[in-house]
Amino acid sequence: MRYRLTAWWARVLVVFVVSRVVTTAIMLSFAARQEANAWTGAHPGYLDFAKLWDGHWYFIIAVAGYPSELPLTDDGHVGESAWAFMPAYPGLIRGLMFVTGLDFRVLAVFVSVAFALATALMFYKLMRLVLPEGTALFAVVLYCFAPLSPILQVAYAESMHAFFLTLALYLLLKRDYWMLLPVVVVMSVTRPSGLAFALAMGLHVIYRWVVRERDPFPRREIVASVVVGASSVVAGFAWLLIAAAATGSLTAYIDTELAWRSAYVGYQELLPLTPWILAADFWIPGPLGILVLILSVGGFVGFMFTPWVRRLGPDIRFWVASYALYLLAVFFPQSSTFRLFVPFFPLWGALAQPRSWVYRLALVLLCVLGQVGWIHIAWWVDGYDWTPP
Predict the structure, then answer these.
(1) How many independent structural domains does the chain possess?
(2) Where is it mostly found (predicted)?
(3) How far apart are CA 137 and CA 140, in angstroms?
(4) pLDDT tens for residues 353-380?
């Protein structure tokens, strides 16, 4: 009885705090065994351990900004630089550093955890639009304990992006289009997502037009939704244009992103929808790699049409499908693939629906084991580590 009288936000807060205790304990156990590496000394404290990998790039941006000239490799190709990382997260931390005088590491972890909590609260509100109360809360449990949930408390932009994505989906389901507009803009300069959300908006407009006889689509909402979709397209290309204007190279952002791929397949042009085919042949040479890719894509498509996913409603499915297509179009799968799957987290609402306590307990335990596996594979630096998160 007392549980039912507890405010929804208090229940979400308890879930979040417990999950952060578990994840922090796992990360500290790895930090205690961490050897000296390019970013830290041996056995670093939590704040140093949380600033590994791209966290250092965000640190560079927060204290020095972006370079006006693209670095070149010895053979004349564009090398790795800060231009691969969008400005909202490091810009916010830079502002907080100026106001508070605190260290980047402290503020980076604080900002990430604060946005992670805000996402958990907002995710519950989103799930309550499509799922019963208990199922919505368990979806939050899965979000908080997910295998990639350690990324929510390190110096990465994922939790900030997750918050704005959740808020954007909530406003989309509520059809509050004008409030959605600034959210999409900020989201698009936090992590690459503007073009995927533009496609989701396009599908949303088409769907509402098709069903307008039973669900009226008044002119004012047509105008507002189309404006949001067009603005999302502009926001999706904005960082490419900003990088081009600042460096004098029209392809500055794309060339910088391709520099990370070169370690696997060398320097190549970006041809949409080909990276996963290249990766299939790279990781599993020959026809078997293509077969695995086809089966994986087919399995994902099939899952999208299951009753559990369909209960999430058309708009969440539009986002998931649009983001999946975006990844298929531009991303080369490697160890960072797991992190780029984070924006699929609304699908936890589908996996949360079975009510068996055995199923739910087993799924949470698998998520915790997944955290251990992901930290071991991607976050923990093990010698000459070529598996970045």
Answers:
(1) 1
(2) endoplasmic reticulum
(3) 5
(4) 999 999 999 999 999 999 999 999 999 9
